[in-house]
């Protein structure tokens, strides 16, 4: 029986060892890459170093070769390029077949994708077809002493952080939300090898046809996720009308107004402004939390901000545990006072 177990373990180790390299899927729309792809190259570089394997980019689209060069500037040493009209717009079936073909041929041990609408769709489809695991919405990635990827993400409504491992299948797949990982350095001199792959899909095989793309002009255009200065309000704001006070402060800073889920649920701010586990992940230079208690589901969305300033009348509020500067007091006095001071500068 011991021999059988040993033989099984050896067979598994052999199967896993056939997979090598860290891949990052470069998500693009009309030739423009999603920033999260570069953030993932930064993170992927650390994993590739720990494993002593190459870091590669997967670039799929129409007329997207320039993105391979960008990937080299952000640290990739190889780029697998599939460039064909059938990939002009994202369609699950076409992209799935392209990625699947690359995996079968080159056998990477890790694949990272952005936890965007597109990334979530594609990663789930790929993992299902390949027959491997997928950890969604990771906030931390590391390599253990057995070369497994340790994937950390909030679980049970954000009440615990779970570390998940896929130790019996390859590739190991994770999605990571935008802004969770820091942007790597951009080196315009960075170079690498482009591996051109032929297109494995014919247009007539794809059931979904894109007839037209209509942008939704009604959505809130303010980009909370990409803002450098955010003034966020929570239930402590007491009403929609009081958010004007936060907007005034945000204007002085050249920033935007965000919100906790309570404020969004109360109808005081639109959902696009929500920060946290079920909202946006943000990484601004300054995050000012006003009347926000600091529930874990809020913290996971903003705790990597460079500077956090918390204003709360309850000195025991958990927000103060992550705050760089804490102000205990009534926000209705403190916020206008800060805005006034900034105007004097
Ligand atoms: P509260 O917790 O009610 O805090 C209000 C704070 O305002 C208090 O600390 C109070 O002391 C302070 N205050 C009141 N009046 C004043 C005043 N005059 N001056 C100064 N301070 C004052 N939450 C999110 O934010 N984002 C998410 O993405 C998110 N996702 C979730 C996902 C799940 C699955 C679950 C279960 C919950 C999620 N939540 C999320 C909700 C989260 O658990 C909290 O309920 C929410 O963050 C609380 O919002 P709040 O801090 O605004 O309100």
**In DSSP terms, counting alpha (H) and pi (I) runs of 4 or more, how many helices?**
10
Give the oligomeric state: single chain
The best one-word shape is: globular
Fraction in helix: 25-40%
Compressed to H and E, one letter per element, the order equals HEEEHEHEHEHEEEEEEEHEHEHEHEH
User: What is the end-to-end distance?
Assistant: 78 Å
What integer is the average pLDDT?
94
Q: What fraction strand?
A: 15-25%
Unreliable spans? none
Give the neighbour order of strands across the main sheet: 7-11-6-1-4-5-12
Largest sheet: 7 strands, parallel
Q: Which hetero compounds are present in the coordinates?
A: flavin-adenine dinucleotide
**Rounded radius of gyration (Å):** 23 Å
Number of strands: 17
Secondary-structure-based class equals alpha/beta
Structural commentary:
Belongs to the ETF alpha-subunit/FixB family. By secondary structure, the chain is α/β, with parallel strands linked by helices. It is built from ten helices and 17 strands. It has helices at residues 2-17, 35-51, 65-73, 92-106, 117-130, 243-253, 261-265, 296-302, 319-322, 331-344, and strands spanning 22-26, 28-29, 32-33, 55-61, 78-83, 110-114, 134-138, 140-143, 149-155, 160-164, 172-176, 193-196, 229-233, 256-259, 286-290, 307-312, 325-328. A seven-stranded parallel β-sheet has the order 7-11-6-1-4-5-12, sandwiched between helices. α6 links the parallel β13 and β14 (256-259). It is globular, with a radius of gyration of 23 Å. It starts with a helix and ends with a helix. Flavin-adenine dinucleotide binds at residues 157-158, 234-236, 260-263, 274-279, 291-293, 295, 297-298, 301, 311-314, 317, 330-332.
